[in-house]
Specification:
two-stranded antiparallel ribbon, alpha+beta, 4 helices, Glutaredoxin, about 110 residues
């Protein structure tokens, strides 16, 4: 889980001026059932990969797998883009997010 999150944290930090136009949500897979279990599982990742920094965006639990299945996520990490109307655009990378923010800013 921890590998791509430092990159998304950098993206979040570098786009503070646009924070009212995007959100980053991290979904954890169904291997934990509650936030206490998640905190225990993430502790070594936070210490080693994230250098002790908590994520600046929420981690959501999908213990049933329903949201992950609905969104068509088949592996982790997966980045998806949701438009301002709440519709799933599809899989996206940082370049796609940059382009969407630039397009939204131009409106």
């Amino acid at each position: 889980m921890g590998g791509s999150l430092p990159s998304l944290t950098r993206f979040f930090d570098e786009h503070q001026e646009a924070k009212d136009r995007f959100a980053i949500l991290a979904f954890h897979d169904g291997s934990v059932q509650d936030f206490t279990e998640l905190d225990l599982k993430l502790a070594p990742i936070v210490a080693k990969q994230w250098k002790g920094r908590a994520l600046p965006f929420p981690i959501l639990l999908d213990s049933s797998g329903e949201t992950i299945a609905t969104w068509g996520i088949t592996g982790f990490p997966t980045t998806v883009l949701i438009d301002p109307e709440g519709k799933l655009v599809g899989a996206a990378g940082e370049a796609d997010l940059e382009a969407a923010l630039a397009k939204d800013k131009a409106r």
